[in-house]
Amino acid sequence: MQYVSDWIASDDLLLLNFSDEVLKVFQSYVQTGSRPESGGILLGTVHDRGILVTKATRPSRFDLKFPYLFDRAPFGHRAIARRQWQISKGTVRYIGEWHTHPQDKPYPSGLDLHEWGRLAACRQDGRSLLSVIVGRNDLYVAMTAADRHQNQLKPYSVSAAIADRC
Question: Among this protein's residues, is 115 annotated catalytic?
Fold first, then answer.
């Protein structure tokens, strides 16, 4: 499965790009057979109208992984985020969370929505939280604000953008 790397918010005010490295991490944890849910955090850089997601942490041995539940432990993930922030002199930062679902076209559960809202409300920088679910054939990509409002992103292609303007 080849996932889309470029996404755009429904209001066309935000463009998001997943690096090839991030997409490879997603693809390596797709839930097939009896594999448990997996996940981690997303790191990258924030720009005027865009976000570049450059790193996705892999599940750690401390995370809880079950067929229908993933609970990320802070150990390991937080250290990676801190190290990337220091190496980049503060330009690479925590962007959000990712995890898998055993669905072709994933959709967030009530627990996912609750957890994303909680994490978004805890953000010290006031930015929305990037929330990604990796399905077997597709991604669910959304930005979750501190007030729990969610803006689902859609795949972006230059040819579709040009067609929309004509």
Answer: no
